[in-house]
Amino acid sequence: MTAPLAQTSADRYFAIRTDNTWVNAILGVSGMHPAAALGPVALASVQYYDLRGQRFDPEFNPPGTLVALTKAAEDPDPIAVRDRLIAVLRHLSDTVEQRIAARPVPRPTPDEARATLPVLDGWPLEDCFTLLYPTFGHNVGITPANPGSWWHMFWCH
Fold first, then answer.
1. Per the domain annotation, does 5 fall within a domain?
2. Is the dihedral of CA 134, 138, 142, 147 positive or negative?
3. 71 has which bridge partners?
4. Taking 60 as the threshold, does the pLDDT of residue 19 lie above it?
5. Cα distance between residue 137 and residue 39, in whole Å
6. Percent of the chain, pLDDT > 90?
7. What gap in Å lies between CA 75 and CA 87, rounded to an integer?
8. SS3 label, residue 62
9. Is residue 74 over pLDDT 90?
10. Which domain holds residue 32?
């Protein structure tokens, strides 16, 4: 195991569920959900990547707060990460009717919801982050009392 990398609030990461059904764009380790909020099953199903396509393993303290990301052994693969992000957006588009049905009013139309999903084909990961962050972003301002924008809640929770 390598030593944890120093993290700053300027660091940007993607948290992607292993089945490519969910993504969050995150500024810094402090912007990530506490482990206690996710639970052990969800934690095991999330992988973290930086904008170079490097995978990181999470490290949690006993109360369940993410305290560091440790660089994984494999080489960065930005194209594979972008392909996974595209797969997540495809899944969200394909399942939009179920999301709409599960939400209280106001409810968007499928076309309104799909219009909020960016097109990532051909973009480097830095641009993918920029395109995803407004809707899929998590930052230090998100708390249980302020969980994110309406669209963030629609797509991510």
1. no
2. positive
3. 56
4. yes
5. 20
6. 52
7. 21
8. coil
9. yes
10. 12-137
Q: How many helices (H) and strands (E) does the chain have?
A: 7, 6
In 3D, which of 45, 40, 121, 34 has the Cα closest to residue 82? 121
Number of domains in the chain: 1
Burial status of residue 43 (CB atoms within 10 A of its CB: 0-12, 13-18, 19 or more)? middle
Question: For residue 41, what are the contacts with CB-CB under 8 A and spacing of at least 6?
Answer: none
Q: Which two tokens stand for residue 90?
A: 């495809």
Mean residue pLDDT across the chain? 83
pLDDT in the model for residue 7: 42
The answer as to whether 132 is a domain residue is: yes
Q: Would you state the pLDDT for residue 121?
A: 95
Which of 31, 67, 26 is CA-nearest to residue 49?
26
Within-domain flag for 63? yes
Average pLDDT over residues 105-116: 93
Q: How many CA atoms lie within 13 A of 83 on its CB side?
A: 4
- Indicate if the alpha-carbon torsion angle 55, 133, 135, 67 is positive or negative: positive
pTM: 0.84
111 assigned to some structural domain: yes
